């Protein structure tokens, strides 16, 4: 791992640390509720790039927040993200059998366990944030709860998911603004929170908190376009998942609305803008800058 | 309503106030997410006895907490309770078409909307608790979040629901202790929180907070036995719902394990014990005492 580029190394290290934190924070798969606890662990431990958790850790590093505090918040965000994936994969929603190459929770257990595991992951994320170990100042903890619950709730992730479902049912005739709004809610708000959380933990001055939030907003938007571009252009072999799904589903994305070239330009503009928000952060912001670049360079 | 006994009048008034609070706290059913917001409102506004919300309001009254603060917490608890009912009613769980005489959310909309509405109700409950309007002191707000999320999470409501599902799948051979544990988790923890919340809001001394928690624990246990007794003895006409369901399902309850008479005695002992915990509360505790008596006297 020592020969890997700095961003890849930092992300791999962060992912390992986040998994350790999750392992400690989630109940052990014992006792009469064991299948619930096992399903929760399966859903969130050991998967994904940990983009959200990495953002929390890097945001926190700008303000010298303790690693333990940042890891708890990173774990909480990953719990919320994982719960949303477990519920999205259900037969009544996207009906997916595989996630990151493994059977989805409702395939590995059953639908009822998947619903409950998602529900319990959401509750547990707020317990983790609210506990004193996250930060000695209750005002910091409650602000984290307020921001994360808003990012996840009816005017955040859940609202975006609803709009997405309705668009698919109606045949997906959305314009650029509607697609942008959908994605801001569905995936953007949680990424914004992840970027902002370190500033909350570090009691950063408002302008710096806003800068991280704005960075998260642009990064999330660029990330989404990059995802759509990959879906439209990359092979399944490269991405490790089925591609061409959006076009096959007749789904409106910024790529289908703007065309490949304009979508790519827009993603590049967003990445540049994201980095501009970090102007006040000096060298400590380098990994966040690299992450922005990586967003549109990645092939999976 | 003026001729109704004091408890019935107080509960009806509380239910109306809680509905008003919910109406204000939930997003209006407008915009592209309208079906999500409408389903959330449908699930939680205008239904049930509001036992949990009433407990919050009465607990808060012991410590002269502002009605507005108490109503926000009551609304948050009812959102969590309603979300659990929406998910429990899903085809993969209890598969119920009716709830309180109305079509369940997945019948009135669809399964995906029901899953999302439940998810969003849970997030929104924590947003409501975390917002400044709930209490000027962030330590109070974050303590409410911590307690409610624990009561709802893997070691609370979700854990109890999991044990219940596994017991049904395995044929329900549980002993008295296992049934007690199941019910403590599945319904007891949220009722305990509801009773305790007023003391948190009122920054009550620990002994008084513990007294309310203990009252809630005994009340919840008595309430559950009374429910099982009603299921075993009352007619569907009296209760307004199907009865004899537990026996038909071969479900172990304290009534099936102890017999009618011993179960009734145990409920009475729990009610007496619940009231004993209120000894320090003077006349202001009278409605909570009446509520304990009502638990085993009710016919629906």
UniProtKB/TrEMBL annotation, chains A, B:
This is Polyprenyl synthetase family protein. Gene3D superfamilies: Farnesyl Diphosphate Synthase. Its cofactor is Mg(2+). One of its GO terms (cellular component) is cytoplasm. Belongs to the FPP/GGPP synthase family. It holds the Pfam family polyprenyl_synt. PROSITE patterns: POLYPRENYL_SYNTHASE_1 (PS00723), POLYPRENYL_SYNTHASE_2 (PS00444). Keywords: Isoprene biosynthesis, Magnesium, Metal-binding, Transferase. One of its GO terms (molecular function) is metal ion binding. It comes from the Bacteria. One of its GO terms (biological process) is terpenoid biosynthetic process.
């Amino acid at each position: 791992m020592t020969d890997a580029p700095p961003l890849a190394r930092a992300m791999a290290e962060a992912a390992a640390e986040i998994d350790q934190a999750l392992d400690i924070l989630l109940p052990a798969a014992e006792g009469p509720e064991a299948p619930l606890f096992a399903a929760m662990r399966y859903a969130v431990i050991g998967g994904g790039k940990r983009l959200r958790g990495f953002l929390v850790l890097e945001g926190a590093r700008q303000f010298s927040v303790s690693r333990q505090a940042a890891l708890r918040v990173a774990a909480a965000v990953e719990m919320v993200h994982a719960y949303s994936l477990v519920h999205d994969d259900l037969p009544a929603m996207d009906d997916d059998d595989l996630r990151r190459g493994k059977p989805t929770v409702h395939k590995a257990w059953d639908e009822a366990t998947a619903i409950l595991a998602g529900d319990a992951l959401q509750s547990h994320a707020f317990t983790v944030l609210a506990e004193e170990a996250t930060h000695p100042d209750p005002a910091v903890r409650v602000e984290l709860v307020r921001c994360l619950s808003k990012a996840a709730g009816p005017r955040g992730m859940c609202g975006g998911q609803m709009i997405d479902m309705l668009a698919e049912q109606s045949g997906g005739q959305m314009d650029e603004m509607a697609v942008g709004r959908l994605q801001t809610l569905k995936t953007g708000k949680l990424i914004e929170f992840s970027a902002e959380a370190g500033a909350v933990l570090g009691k950063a001055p408002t302008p710096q908190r806003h800068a991280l939030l704005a960075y998260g907003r642009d990064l999330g938007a660029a990330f989404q376009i990059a995802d759509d571009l990959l879906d439209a252009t990359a092979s399944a072999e490269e991405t490790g998942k089925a591609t061409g799904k959006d076009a096959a589903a007749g789904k409106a994305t910024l790529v289908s609305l703007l065309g490949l070239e304009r979508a790519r330009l827009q993603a590049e503009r967003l990445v540049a803008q994201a980095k501009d928000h970090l102007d006040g952060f000096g060298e400590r912001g380098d990994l966040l800058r690299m992450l922005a670049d990586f967003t549109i360079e990645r092939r999976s």
